[in-house]
Write a structure and sequence with these properties.
The protein has 118 residues and is an all-beta fold. Helix content is 0%, strand content 59%. It is built from no helices and eleven strands. The strands form two sheets. Strands 2, 4, 5, 6, 9, 10 and 11 form a seven-stranded mixed sheet that branches. A four-stranded antiparallel sheet has the order 1-3-8-7, with no helix packed on it. It is elongated and about 45 Å long.
Length: 118
Amino acid sequence: QVQLVESGGGSVQAGQSLRLSCVASGRIFGINAMGWYRQAPGKQRELVAVITSTTNYADSVKGRFTISRDNAKNTVYLQMNSLKPEDTAVYYCNADVKPTAWSIRNYWGQGTQVTVSS
């Protein structure tokens, strides 16, 4: 019914940039919070950034990553600059979606791999 699809992942060298996109599709009345999480091998999934009317970032990415959204396109972006090897992880899109005006559900994307080489 509702699907989140990420794109933009890939392999880059340290210091380079990457821009991730996540598009929500399906039955969507509205979307509240949207965010990005990441999970490195052997580690728990962690919050990278979230956006509602404000933004919040993990300390490890502050000053380097920027989250933004285009409500008309049901899309959230993550601009990642000055990438470091420690940023290597599978990045997941997450959103609180309202399929109807009276309900809300949390959804996850399938993930997109980001690999940063030194």
